[in-house]
Amino acid sequence: MDFERPLDALNAARNKRVLVELKNKHQVLGQLKAFDIHINIVLDDAEERDEDGKTARKLGQVFIRGDMIVFVSPAT
Amino acid sequence: MDFERPLDALNAARNKRVLVELKNKHQVLGQLKAFDIHINIVLDDAEERDEDGKTARKLGQVFIRGDMIVFVSPAT
Amino acid sequence: MDFERPLDALNAARNKRVLVELKNKHQVLGQLKAFDIHINIVLDDAEERDEDGKTARKLGQVFIRGDMIVFVSPAT
Amino acid sequence: MDFERPLDALNAARNKRVLVELKNKHQVLGQLKAFDIHINIVLDDAEERDEDGKTARKLGQVFIRGDMIVFVSPAT
Amino acid sequence: MDFERPLDALNAARNKRVLVELKNKHQVLGQLKAFDIHINIVLDDAEERDEDGKTARKLGQVFIRGDMIVFVSPAT
Amino acid sequence: MDFERPLDALNAARNKRVLVELKNKHQVLGQLKAFDIHINIVLDDAEERDEDGKTARKLGQVFIRGDMIVFVSPAT
Amino acid sequence: MDFERPLDALNAARNKRVLVELKNKHQVLGQLKAFDIHINIVLDDAEERDEDGKTARKLGQVFIRGDMIVFVSPAT
Q1: Which in B25, B63, G8, G32 has the greatest CB count within 10 A?
Q2: Apex CA E8: angle with CA G70 and CA G9, to 5°?
Q3: Do E6 and C61 touch (CB under 8 A)?
Q4: E64 touches chain G (CB under 8 A)
């Protein structure tokens, strides 16, 4: 897929399952519901994994503050 | 629920009990009373838990500065 | 109390005794005299406590830079 | 090649394979698809390597938040 | 004293001796000569103390960058 | 040489070999090709050195994000 | 000397020898040639000293990014 702007890639991932890597080394997996230009993100059916990849917590819906995000990638 | 913008999810959580994860690894649980575009947040009946999940302090009402926030999620 | 915006909660606390948690893990207790949109805060009759809750210093009046603040809560 | 502005160099690298060094000391290699003035970046066919240069994860497409980036360089 | 805005408190301290706590845990004591909205501060007859309260250096006049400041308080 | 503004000094160094000190304690040496007001910088024929001054990597052309930079100085 | 604004103090130090304390605990001494509102600074005949006060490197001219600066003081 070709994108003019980085946010187009997030838009294409809307409603899909994504992996969000955080600056605290935790990861949150969930369905991408919303995002904005600060990369604030809302996920549904989210679960948080710690550095070792173990599920630490089921979060359900979660609002993640954009400045905590390292990257967003399709969950595999 | 479907949201156009991430802040819509916070709006839907107004007056509900939420879990706020902080960058200092502490968590604050309380009833979401107010928020703004910086994700500054006011909680009522709040309690702070440390990294191990133990209640460290009853805070009552608390104003949390937005740049300290990792995520906000419904309390389960 | 109900607030439209988070700063309304700080406004309601004006002239009351508050606990200010700082990013360096210290706490400052004092009477809230003034604040602005950056959450810069002025306290009167302030004292600083270290991580263990011991009073480290009597500060009298103190201007705290907003970006150092984790949360502000009524002192109990 | 001569550039007036730094972003011209990113533009010249579009669709080429680049190495993105992150502030968490990890590296992401992939094909540069999109970027913006915040240096938010989208890579295709991306893989993440840890500090020792070992491939930690295949990421496929990845959106990297600009403020996590140290440098972007052609992959060799 | 009553202040509408936090900067009013700094203004009232102009030409008085203040204690400036820095994010690197050092303190600078000196006469407050100037400040701006970023809380950039100029002190005269300044001395820097380390974490243990020992005078590390006589600085004379010093320009302190606002984003390094934790708090400013009257020197006692 | 006399400069009105700091960026004039970077302009005078254009096409010359410079040392760029990074916040991760690494250094990048290369020919300065472009910069902007955020101090985003593009170097040609760049090499990265670690804290001990050893060449860690040949980078060729590199785009360095401005907020990672400590200083830029003519390479000696 | 009396200053209305903090930058007036830097202006008064132009062409004089100053000590620049950095957030990485290093110091740079040199002749102040230029500065701007971000406190980006250009020094001539600069030398960098490490935490122990030993001269680590002769830098000649150096452009220092403002957000790395703790304070600027006349060199004594």
Answers
A1: B63
A2: 40
A3: no
A4: yes
Q: Look at E23 and C22 and tell me if their CB atoms are within 8 Å.
A: no
D39-66 pLDDT tens trace? 999 999 999 998 877 777 899 999 999 9
Question: Is E16 part of the contact surface with chain C (CB cutoff 8 Å)?
Answer: no
Structure pTM? 0.94
> Closest residue of D to F44, CA-based?
D1
Contact B59 C73 (CB under 8 A): yes
Residue G7 contacts F where some CB pair is shorter than 8 Å: no
- Burial of residue F20 (CB within 10 Å: 0-12, 13-18, 19+) is buried
Long-range contact set of residues D51-58: C-beta below 8 Å, sequence gap at least 24 = D51/D25, D51/D26, D53/D27, D56/D26, D58/A76
Instruction: Choose among F13, F28, G64, F73: nearest CA to D71.
Output: F28
Which parts of chain A have pLDDT scores under 70?
Answer: 1-2
Contact status of D72 with chain F (Cβ, < 8 Å) = yes
Structure tokens at A43: 């996920």
Listed residue (C29, B13, C62, A10) closest to D40, CA to CA: A10
Residue E15 phi, psi dihedral angles, 5° rounding = 75, 0
**Residue of C8, C11, C21, C49 for testing the chain B interface, max B β-carbons within 10 Å:** C21
Are the C-beta atoms of B32 and B15 separated by less than 8 Å? yes
Question: Using an 8 Å Cβ cutoff, are E26 and E19 in contact?
Answer: no
pLDDT at A2: 63
- Residue B53 DSSP SS3: coil
Cβ neighbours, 10 Å, residue G74: 17
Q: Which pLDDT belongs to residue E54? A: 76
The whole-angstrom separation of Cα E38 and Cα E54 is 28
- Rounded to whole angstroms, the Cα distance separating G62 from G43 reads 5
What percent of chain F is predicted at pLDDT more than 90? 80
E56 in G contact zone (CB under 8 Å): no
CA–CA gap between residue D4 and residue F17 (Å, rounded): 17
Cα F45 to Cα F43: distance, rounded to the nearest angstrom: 7
> How far apart, in whole angstroms, are the C-alpha atoms of residue D14 and residue D35?
9
Coil, helix or strand at residue A52? coil
What lies within 8 Å, CB to CB, of A32 at 6+ separation is: A10, A13, A14, A15, A16, A17, A18, A41, A42, A43, A72
Query: Within an 8 Å CB–CB cutoff, is residue C52 touching chain B?
Result: no
**Domains of chain F listed by start with CATH number:** 6-74 (2.30.30.100)
What are A75's strand-pairing partners?
A: none
Cα separation, A25 vs A19, whole angstroms: 12
* pLDDT digit string, tens, across residues B11-52: 999 999 999 999 999 999 999 999 999 999 999 999 999 887
Residues E31, G9: Cα–Cα separation, whole Å: 14
Separation in Å, CA C13 to CA B11, B48, C45: 24, 20, 15
The answer on pLDDT for G4 being more than 90 is: no
Task: Name F28's bridge partners.
Answer: F20, F48
